[in-house]
């Protein structure tokens, strides 16, 4: 089976590429080598196309070379703080890039057999203080990054109805693990400790996130594209909810570092207090997360300690 992974040299995309190759898939990776991607994430058994999805002509030429059975669309700008500072790269990559992808699919692929998996996020749901969001709940994004992810879902839905492109959407909770770009929360904690620099914590640090290990997330994506229904959304999460400050203190303890490194900074505007996804739908289909918080975090910390150059 021939599959395309966009964002294949990024954090999640590289882990997905590895998982697919282990399962015997023929993988073509498409990546623009932008923020968060690294040539060090290459899997030598995959074929790579170094193309920016914003370049419509190059995307079309790439798609004319292949016929895919499945497409996993992960390529995206994905950092809230940067989207607040400058949203243009997010609009270019996440919205225009997704439009260019679907146009190329429409013009070049056999739509009778193709399945697309759109990798989305819990952040577009907005915040809630109790309970968990279900797939059918109203999306209420509060920042420009999550707005562009909602736009991706709208594009996919439109091409389903207008062109019969079969897209399945997975919305994932906060994903962590080896190879994550250092601007993200957990790598920032680890690298700050390694360099004995202050660890910045927004506000009180009581914002709650649901933590999913990257291998669970990519296995869920493969499960959903194989077992899900077109034009449906599937929430992927672990049920492991932790306040940010508790995460910081856990990592400090594992790395035997002082809590004096904690530095509380002014909270950002529109900072969501809590995310939580109801995963009953995908659990009933037979998927469940496997990696515990302690196991996943310890493995990730060890990886960064062994790969300080990353």
What does the model show?
This protein has 2 domains: 2-175 and 213-236, NAD(P)-binding Rossmann-like Domain (Rossmann fold); 177-209 and 240-274 and 290-306, Alpha-Beta Complex (UDP-galactose 4-epimerase, domain 1). The strands form 3 sheets. The protein has a 7-stranded parallel beta sheet with strand order 3-2-1-4-5-6-10, sandwiched between helices. A 3-stranded mixed beta sheet has the order 7-9-11. A two-stranded parallel sheet has the order 8-12. It is built from 10 helices and 12 strands. The two termini are 32 Å apart. Helix 2 packs parallel to helix 4 (88-108), helix 4 (88-108) packs parallel to helix 5 (144-163) and helix 6 packs parallel to helix 8 (244-254). The longest helix is centred in the first third of the chain and has 21 residues, at 88-108. Strand 1 (2-6), helix 1 and strand 2 (26-31) form a beta-alpha-beta unit. The chain is globular. With 310 residues, the chain is of the alpha/beta class. 39% of the residues lie in helices and 18% in strands.
Low-confidence blocks of residues: none
| Helix share bin | 25-40%
Largest sheet: 7 strands, parallel
Q: What is the count of structural domains?
A: 2
Give the overall shape, derived from the CA principal axes.
globular
| Series of H and E elements | EHEEHEHHEHEEHEEHEEHEHH
**Overall mean pLDDT:** 96
